[in-house]
Amino acid sequence: MATLKEQLQEVVASLPDDCTIEDFRYRLYVRRKAEEGIRAIERGETYSHEEAVEIVKSWRKSYGQSPP
Length: 68
Description:
single chain; mainly alpha; elongated
């Protein structure tokens, strides 16, 4: 596994020359969230499609919206 410094260098290298600090921060955020998702999958912390549909339906009901 690459060191943190190497990972940051990869992000910097992937950015265009005219990027902003916000572009850099966003790339780091997206990368962190993707890594968290991968770890959750590895731990089996996922939902089936059917479970996800039911969860979203419950959210819609709690906001007074009827399911499609």
